[in-house]
Amino acid sequence: MGGLACVSACASAALAASSVGLVETSIGEAHAQIRGATRPLAAGADIFVGDLVSTSATARLVMLLGGATRVRLGANTRLRVDKFLSSAGGELTFDSGAVVVDHEEKAGPIDLRLRSPFGLIAVRGTRFFAGPSNGTFGVFVERGIVDFTAGGVTLRLTAGEGTEVKRPGDKPTAVRRWPFERANDAMLSTY
């Protein structure tokens, strides 16, 4: 599709959707795809319900959703905004890569669900990581509380705790405190 045709198709697709946030920062190549139209993402770009946001191997992206929820994407990450309401929360589908979700405490609790092939993360207002860690899929909570469901088991994680899953469908390991180095590496993977 030529440049002008893509701009037109992307604008039409974007107008049909409702903006739920924007890109705060973008380093490297990142795109959003909605209804078959793909557009590049740079600082200030709108994020819409239905967007499939993806980053390249050298990219990092920070989205602000609803004014109080920052979603940081690391390299080679794919995340779809299924639905999002600024005061209520929403659902995101996370296919690959590393994500840090940071909901401002002063904004009050939020009901946010992050789905992945490895499990479901239910958020109530928090700062947490999900993605590759030590050769597994890890979930680590820096602040707040998340419930992680995988392999038919639900675990509650609080600040400083993490768990992991080796393969989709597996049960998560027992909740334990993550060493500083592992937690730090995980959180920094989206910077």
3D structure, described in words:
The structure is a single chain. The chain has helices spanning 3-16, 180-188, and strands spanning 19-27, 30-34, 37-40, 46-48, 52-55, 60-65, 69-73, 78-85, 89-96, 99-103, 111-116, 119-133, 136-150, 153-158, 161-165, 176-177. It is mainly beta. The protein has a domain at 60-189: Jelly Rolls (Sandwich), CATH 2.60.120.1440. β12 and β13 (136-150) form a beta hairpin. The radius of gyration is 16 Å and the shape is globular. The relative contact order is 0.11. Residues 1-16 have low confidence and may be disordered.
Offer a concise description of the structure.
12% of the residues lie in helices and 55% in strands. The chain has helices spanning 3-16, 180-188, and strands at residues 19-27, 30-34, 37-40, 46-48, 52-55, 60-65, 69-73, 78-85, 89-96, 99-103, 111-116, 119-133, 136-150, 153-158, 161-165, 176-177. The longest helix is centred in the N-terminal third of the chain and has 14 residues, at 3-16.
